[in-house]
Amino acid sequence: MNGATTLESIESFLPERSVRIEDLAGSLGLRRAEVGVFRKIYGLDRLRFDPELGLFDLVLPAARQALKALPQGRRIAYVIYAHTMQTLTPPHLDAAQVIRDDLGLPDAEAFAFTQQACVSSLGAIDLAGELLRAEAPPGSYALMVTGERAYSPKIQLIPNSAVMAEAAAACLLTVDGPGDRVRSHVTRTLGEFAAGLEMTREQSQEFGKVYGTVLGEVIQQAVQEAGLRFEEIDLVIPHNVNLVSWRQTIKEMGADPERFFLENVPHYSHTYASDVFVNYTTLRERERLVDGHHYVLVSVGLGATFGAMVITHRRPTA
Asked: CA-CA distance, 74 to 240, in Å (whole number)?
């Protein structure tokens, strides 16, 4: 695969403060019965949430860690800040440029990517690869960063779906490097659900009906475009929206539930565009990523975009 995007370093960061979903019931206006549904049916338990932590204090640690893998003398051409909520800072601050400057990368082009909501991190990787191939000097790198705060109850609660949490991640990538190879990237956007959090009850119900089918189709299409069969996929590394949605998708696909990494759902909940990378680093720490094996990174963003990216893991050499 000539000119393949490769992921050279993936890092994540979680605030130390962990709370139970019951602790947020008051601020989110959840009744006891609703909390019970989130816990017993949706599989949520705890999440990371620290109102005292600043946005850049959340984002920068993972980015700094990922940059340690940048080879001596190589250049970061792009810093892409992928996030879900369009407004994260006051109007006079460009968050992507602040991140770039704080990382000491003044020559990099810095911009945000938000159009695909929680799938924006996968889209940003795809875009970074295209930019590196099209216009950057050979041997250049890009840095994709994620992380946003659940700064308001309005954006922390997705009714009948998720309680949003906080995390950050960063991915250092280049073209034809020794890291994980991106084999395919597929998205599908259903514009009829563009209202997102403002959808009517009827729209939300219709979205729920098609969710599992469409997500399963996108996963299968990504696997097919990667030149693989689903049986050759070691694990699906998903977002942590809830267990119900994933059980629905797995049933629609007729797949083995053991092939989907859902163990972090009760520990971290859904962390906007960072989920798949938090789950990736968890698997890496547990030595569950196997050299040469194939994985699917999957997420869904309100709006509504479904995304899947197939990668082949390559264990770093000393």
From this structure: 35
Q: Would you state the structure tokens that stand for residue 275, as one six-digit string?
A: 């989920």
CB distance 292 to 314 below 8 Å? yes
Look at residues 128, 158, 144, 169 and name the one whose alpha carbon lies nearest to residue 275: 169
Nearest-angstrom CA–CA distance, 21 and 47: 7
Domain boundary among 123, 151, 175: 175
Q: Is residue 318 part of a domain?
A: no
Q: What range defines the domain where residue 262 resides?
A: 180-312
What sign results for the dihedral spanned by CA atoms 67, 273, 7, 79? negative
Q: How far is CA 256 from CA 5, 143, 216, 226, 234, in A?
A: 29, 34, 13, 20, 11
List C-alpha distances in Å: 34 to 22, 37, 124, 161, 174.
Answer: 10, 5, 35, 11, 45
CB 96 within 8 A of CB 80: yes
Residue 317 lies in a domain: no
For 85-133, the pLDDT digits (tens) are 888 898 899 999 999 999 999 999 999 999 999 999 999 999 999 999 9
Closest CA to 123 of 307, 298, 311, 313: 307
How confident is the model over 205-249, as pLDDT tens digits? Answer: 999 999 999 999 999 999 999 999 999 999 999 999 999 999 999
Domain count, the chain: 2
Q: What pLDDT does residue 238 have? A: 97
Can you name the residues that pair with 295 across neighbouring β-strands?
235, 311
User: CB neighbours of 136 closer than 8 A, spacing ≥ 6?
Assistant: 77, 78, 142
CATH of the domain at 23: 3.40.47.10
Distances in whole angstroms, Cα of residue 76 to Cα of each of 17, 27, 57, 99, 135: 32, 41, 21, 13, 13
